[in-house]
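Subject: mismatched residue count in predicted assembly?

I count 224 residues in my input, but I want to confirm that the predicted structure covers every chain. Input:
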Amino acid sequence: QMTQSPSSLSASVGDRITITCRASQGISSSLAWFQQKPGKAPKSLIFAASSLQSGVPSKFSGSGSGTDFNLTITSLQPEDFATYYCQQYNSYPLSFGGGTKVQI
Amino acid sequence: QIQLVQSGADVKKPGASVKVSCKASGYTFTSFGITWVRQAPGQGLEWMGWISTYTGNTNYAQSLRDRVTMTTDTSTTTAYMELRSLRSDDTAFYYCARSGSQLWSPVDYWGQGTLVTVSS
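Triage response: the counts match. Full output below for your records.
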């Protein structure tokens, strides 16, 4: 089971934010992060806890291993306001966190 | 470029079945698996299962195991997800996504999603 916090946060353009994802048991580094905008399919940002997917800007970074993980976004821009999900792919069933909505 | 293009929206009555397709292009189809994820309106993401496009092996979420079947057609590089005995709480966007050749793999590319509405 994956628990994300906070469930929502308010930020301003230019801010640096961090979203946390906690696993109920150790998952090594088998964690991915996704961004979803309203009415759109999710977009893959990070895999293996800290590796950027192709084409994802370096303003996104991931860290952590075991049970505690972070997604950090620097210099927030209007296009970054979205909902972010973590997902573990270490053990069955593969599972998502509940999401973090980042609002202006 | 890598693309996953899904079939269009569908409306079904309770008890019916739906089959969503996912046409892959721009890569070697059998070198990657396909994961299916759904999202009820206003809710989070739910992992439904994974299929190996090379072997046809599948792994389904426990909650759906009795009602879901995932298949692929390598000749047309298309993956399919069939859900039977539909209920109102199956109303959701259904997404396919490319993942690794093993179950324990991350996804990278996503389809655009297919809205399935279950209503009498």
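Chain A touches chain B at residues 30, 32, 34, 36, 41-44, 47-48, 53-54, 85, 87, 89-99 (CB under 8 Å). Marking this ticket as 'not a bug'.
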